[in-house]
């Protein structure tokens, strides 16, 4: 085994370590790291800035083919200003993957404040050079005939330089075992022709043959050597002195019936040893590839006297003629050298047609009038031994083909093809039906019945009283990554505007605001609310301390995390188990109040499973008033991580009627203005509406949606009334609307 140190401390010329009197920028690479050749380890080069101005690092390059590489595609970055006592820092992660043993030196070239700089990266590739299996197990063997295996060796340390590997010794280590029973090489006319030396560039193998002369457990130690390195490999065999096997199969015949490809069918037979001596089964094979043994291991199987073994077989027909065959077990030879086999018959009948369509029939279920359904996939499968030609695929209105392969379509034996269908918007109430028609070249049609049940669009009615204030529960999800620091000044200004808005709304809205972050790592908040130093978990608009509590909870940090997500943090914050945990977020949501979540970030949505978190929030939306919005990188002209051109946030906002607004500009979450007489003007809806369907009736009079009357605010899922319309003695407000298509 070779070992050595890797990589030292690398500083810019004239730039000492942070904290020294010169107080200049420095670059530090780690010390004492090694990596075995053929493996990968990560190292971090750290950039320190103790000065009062930003330090710009650009044009990072490594030589092609070097054993060092960037973990991520290098980008220009800035090390923010710091101080001598607390320099700011950025870590650049590199991967070291040596392909040979020995020391290497690679230059890392970059521009620092526009000046070319070179950093020498030093590494050491270490051994081991050789790898060999620790154990070669022959499993159960009969006394006759012989059995062969391989002892595999791998060159894992030199990568390109061949190794001379030899077997230096072989020793029998168990009773009733001799060296003559193990041949390292091959048998020719019953004699062992040794092979004890191989040249290994990457992989090679020594052939092993066991020639048992007596029964019992047998072990040998084989020493393999390459230069100064050696391995001891243990060779194991369990030799059984058997008489002729006496087996019985239950059931004695595996009849699968009709198996319609691409489906499969699985059946089992139980082999029972009805003799007085053990029986060794060497292998299990099927005579027809349409049958496959599922649970046979790589080694032989021993069935003791009166013992049993279950064997599973899978059938999958690819021929219209059906299939017949045998499941055959090879048996270990007896003392007289004779080998035997034992067989179980197999059979499966063919399908009735060459073309299989699934699903059949296809039911779309309940569909709202005016809505379309998601596309449903239909599979065509050719189960015959000859090709099929599909000349046309058609459906009956109002069902339509969303996607289909070009016609004519040729399906080879065993080949599948897909197309999709959907129900288009209709106004008819009741059952509708249609047919998928697949026409073959010979004019024969294969049909799938299509059904759906059309129900009226649901109408929602919310009635409001004027003798109580609206309850509004708002959760802010703040980006706390280091890169978000560039937005802090503007975000702080907008948060102050939000605080002032809450104070203006106080006469007619009882507001509470809680705060979490986008950090969803295992040791992060993961949706848990922040608390003040005094243990307060949210800022209440009715409290005299609202402004100071709000400012403390919305403090902007750059702690950062490996995993950041708006939708996951939002879902965790307002759903179980945190939503009812008294040590978590319990007590925040009020049953008669509306809940709004707003994520504030300049990054894209990074969740790998946004659909799951969205579904969790949609289940919540069915039971309480809820909206989800994002203040993010939407058409931003300032510096952001990435523009949300692909709609990574929009897909999460749309189902909740929320809004998206640019993090760099004025946030379009609320209106700042005067409110008269302390009258309630905000009315939260009980579910998400189709905005165009909203109708507002005040004291028996329908009000048009126009300036000076009312407006719908998607960010908080509420209707905002103009105070002048309500007057001094309002009595009733009735809002009706349709729910959107699912």
Please tag this protein with its features.
disordered N terminus, five-stranded mixed sheet, 7% helix, 742 residues
Characterization of this structure:
The chain has 742 residues and is mainly beta. 7% of the residues lie in helices and 44% in strands. It contains six helices and 50 strands. A six-stranded mixed β-sheet has the order 41-40-39-42-43-44. It has a five-stranded mixed β-sheet with strand order 2-9-8-4-6, with no helix packed on it. A hairpin with a 4-residue loop joins strand 48 and strand 49. Helix 3 (566-574) packs parallel to helix 4 (610-621). Residues 1-21, 334-338 and 671-678 have low confidence and may be disordered.
Q: What's the helix and strand layout?
A:
Layout: E1 26-28, E2 35-36, E3 41-49, E4 55-62, E5 68-70, E6 77-79, E7 88-96, E8 102-112, E9 115-126, E10 130-132, E11 135-142, E12 147-155, E13 163-172, E14 182-188, E15 191-194, E16 197-200, E17 203-210, E18 216-226, E19 229-240, E20 247-250, E21 254-258, E22 265-273, E23 279-286, E24 291-293, E25 301-303, E26 308-315, E27 323-331, E28 340-349, E29 355-358, E30 362-368, E31 376-382, E32 388-395, E33 399-403, E34 409-411, E35 416-423, E36 430-440, E37 445-455, E38 459-464, E39 470-478, H1 488-505, E40 509-517, E41 539-540, H2 546-553, H3 566-574, E42 594-600, H4 610-621, E43 625-632, H5 650-653, E44 660-662, E45 682-684, E46 695-698, E47 701-703, E48 710-713, E49 718-721, H6 723-726, E50 733-738
Parallel strand pairs: 2-9, 11-19, 21-28, 30-37, 39-40, 39-42, 42-43, 43-44
Antiparallel strand pairs: 1-3, 3-7, 4-6, 4-8, 5-7, 8-9, 10-12, 12-17, 13-16, 13-18, 14-15, 14-17, 18-19, 20-22, 22-26, 23-25, 23-27, 24-26, 27-28, 29-31, 31-35, 32-34, 32-36, 33-35, 36-37, 38-50, 40-41, 45-49, 46-47, 46-50, 48-49
């Amino acid at each position: 085994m070779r070992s050595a140190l890797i990589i030292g401390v690398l500083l810019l010329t004239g730039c000492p370590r942070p904290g020294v009197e010169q107080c200049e920028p420095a670059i530090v690479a780690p010390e004492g790291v090694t990596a075995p050749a053929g493996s990968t380890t990560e190292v971090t080069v750290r950039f320190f800035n103790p000065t009062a101005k930003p330090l710009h690092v650009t044009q990072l390059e490594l030589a092609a083919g070097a054993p060092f590489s960037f973990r991520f595609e290098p980008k220009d970055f800035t090390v923010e200003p710091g101080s001598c006592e607390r320099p700011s820092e950025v870590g650049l992660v590199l991967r070291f993957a040596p392909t040979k043993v020995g020391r290497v030196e690679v230059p890392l070239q970059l521009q620092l404040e526009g000046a070319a700089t070179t950093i020498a990266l030093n590494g050491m590739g270490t051994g081991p050079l050789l790898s060999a299996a620790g154990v070669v197990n022959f499993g159960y063997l009969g006394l006759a005939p012989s059995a062969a295996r391989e002892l595999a060796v791998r060159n894992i340390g030199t990568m390109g330089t061949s190794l001379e590997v030899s077997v230096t010794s072989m020793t029998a280590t168990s009773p009733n075992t001799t060296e003559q029973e193990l041949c390292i090489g091959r048998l020719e006319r019953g004699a062992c022709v040794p092979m004890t030396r191989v040249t290994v560039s990457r992989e090679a193998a020594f052939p092993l043959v066991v020639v048992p002369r007596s029964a019992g457990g047998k072990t040998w130690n084989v020493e393999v050597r390459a230069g100064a390195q050696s391995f001891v490999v243990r060779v194991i065999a369990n030799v059984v002195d058997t008489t002729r096997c006496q087996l019985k199969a239950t059931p004695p015949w595996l009849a699968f019936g009709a198996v319609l490809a691409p489906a499969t069918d699985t059946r089992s037979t139980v082999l029972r040893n009805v003799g007085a001596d053990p029986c060794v089964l060497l292998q299990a094979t099927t005579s027809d590839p349409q049958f496959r043994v599922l649970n046979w291991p790589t080694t032989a199987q021993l069935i003791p006297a009166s013992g049993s073994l279950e064997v599973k077989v899978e059938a999958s027909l690819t021929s219209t003629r059906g299939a017949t065959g045998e499941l055959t077990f090879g048996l270990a030879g007896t003392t007289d050298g004779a080998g035997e086999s034992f067989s179980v018959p197999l059979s499966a009948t063919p399908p009735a047609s060459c073309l299989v369509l699934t699903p059949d029939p296809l039911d779309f279920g309940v569909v709202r009038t005016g809505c379309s359904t998601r596309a449903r996939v239909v599979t065509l499968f050719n189960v015959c031994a000859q090709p099929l030609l599909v000349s046309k695929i058609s459906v009956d209105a109002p069902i339509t083909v969303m996607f289909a392969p070009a016609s004519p379509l040729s399906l080879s034996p065993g080949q599948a093809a897909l197309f999709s269908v959907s129900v288009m918007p209709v106004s008819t109430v009741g059952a509708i039906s249609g047919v998928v028609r697949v026409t073959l070249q010979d004019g024969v049609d294969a049909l799938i019945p299509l059904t759906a049940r059309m129900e009226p669009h649901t109408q929602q009615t919310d009635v409001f009283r004027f003798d109580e204030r609206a309850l509004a529960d708002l959760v802010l999800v703040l980006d706390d990554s280091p890169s978000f620091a560039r937005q802090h000044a503007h975000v702080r200004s907008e948060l102050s505007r939000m605080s002032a808005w809450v104070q203006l709304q106080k006469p007619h809205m009882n507001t509470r605001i809680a705060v979490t972050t986008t950090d969803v790592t295992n040791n992060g908040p993961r949706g848990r609310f922040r608390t003040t130093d005094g243990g307060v978990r949210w800022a209440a608009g009715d409290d005299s301390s609202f402004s100071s509590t709000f400012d403390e909870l919305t403090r902007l940090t750059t702690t950062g995390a490996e995993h950041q997500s708006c939708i996951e943090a939002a879902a965790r914050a307002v759903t179980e188990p945190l939503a009812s945990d008294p040590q978590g977020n319990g007590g925040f949501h009020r049953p008669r109040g509306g809940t709004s979540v707003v994520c504030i970030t300049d990054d894209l949505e990074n969740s790998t499973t946004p659909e799951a978190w969205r579904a969790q929030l949609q289940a919540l939306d069915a039971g309480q008033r809820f909206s989800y919005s994002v203040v993010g990188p939407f058409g931003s002209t300032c510096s952001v991580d990435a523009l949300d051109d692909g709609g990574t946030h929009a897909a999460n906002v749309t189902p909740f009627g929320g809004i998206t607004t640019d993090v760099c500009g004025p946030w379009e979450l609320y209106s700042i203005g005067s409110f008269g007489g302390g009258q309630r003007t905000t009315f939260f809806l009980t579910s998400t509406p189709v905005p165009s369907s909203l109708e507002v009736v005040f004291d028996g009079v329908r009000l048009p949606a126009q300036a000076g009357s009312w407006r719908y605010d998607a960010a908080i899922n509420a209707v905002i009334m103009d105070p002048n319309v309500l007057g001094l003695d309002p009595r009733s407000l009735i809002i009706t609307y349709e729910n959107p298509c699912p």
